[in-house]
Write a sequence for this structure.
């Protein structure tokens, strides 16, 4: 049986989060008149990544991630700030960033022409993800985008995928494929939900997790090839 429902992670899979983050952070830190913008960014990026990984492991809450990451950042440099206020300002800057990876638009155009039902499946803050998609060149290709911030459900929880299934007409797990870069959120999430997965792994890193991808792809062409190999949509 061929795939019909393609669930795409957004950040690091289609949307270029690193580019978006860099611009938004630069704008925020310049506005705050910090002494060394690059030093602040160099500390923030790995710290923020670690916080989101802790969230995926349910060690901290999303509220804690969002409202404390900037107070943590400035505290590292000996300053005390209102973390919540900085978070809101950062969200404004980030929501205006719609950078995508080369070939993302062409991929989604092709999948649309082929008749696939393309869904977004992303962990994140609803206003940010919706804003970024709105200013990107790919937002119009999704039948619907499921954002964890809308409900509190998040990958890799099975409940997140149950939400997609219950809110998507005719959804069939056996004809669904989750495509994403995160072993923890996307691949383990697909494993938990009984959905096939394609691990988008352009840097060809090793899998040191318990997540088991159905496929491993390093570029969009390999995704097209595996879909073609699985036959037509009838």
């Amino acid at each position: 049986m061929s795939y019909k429902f393609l669930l795409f992670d957004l950040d690091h899979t289609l949307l270029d989060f690193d580019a978006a983050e860099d611009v938004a952070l630069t704008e925020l830190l310049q506005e705050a008149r910090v002494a060394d913008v690059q030093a602040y960014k160099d500390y923030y990026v790995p710290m923020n990544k670690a916080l989101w990984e802790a969230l995926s492991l349910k060690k901290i809450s999303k509220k804690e991630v969002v409202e404390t990451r900037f107070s943590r950042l400035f505290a590292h440099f000996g300053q005390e700030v209102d973390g919540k206020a900085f978070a809101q300002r950062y969200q404004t800057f980030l929501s205006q960033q719609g950078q995508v990876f080369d070939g993302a638009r062409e991929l989604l155009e092709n999948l649309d022409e082929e008749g696939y039902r393309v869904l977004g499946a992303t962990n994140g803050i609803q206003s940010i993800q919706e804003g970024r998609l709105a200013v990107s060149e790919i937002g119009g290709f999704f039948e619907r985008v499921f954002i964890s911030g809308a409900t509190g459900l998040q990958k890799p929880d099975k409940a997140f995928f149950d939400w997609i299934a219950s809110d998507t007409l005719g959804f069939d797990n056996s004809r669904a494929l989750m495509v994403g870069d995160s072993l923890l959120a996307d691949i383990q999430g697909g494993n938990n939900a009984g959905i096939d997965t394609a691990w988008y792994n352009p840097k060809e890193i090793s899998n040191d997790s318990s997540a088991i991808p159905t496929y491993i792809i390093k570029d969009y062409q390999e995704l097209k090839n595996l879909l073609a190999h699985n036959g037509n949509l009838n």
Notes: Residues 17-94 form a domain with the DNA polymerase; domain 1 fold (CATH 1.10.150.240). Residues 15 and 100 are 4 Å apart (CA to CA). The longest strand covers residues 117-122.
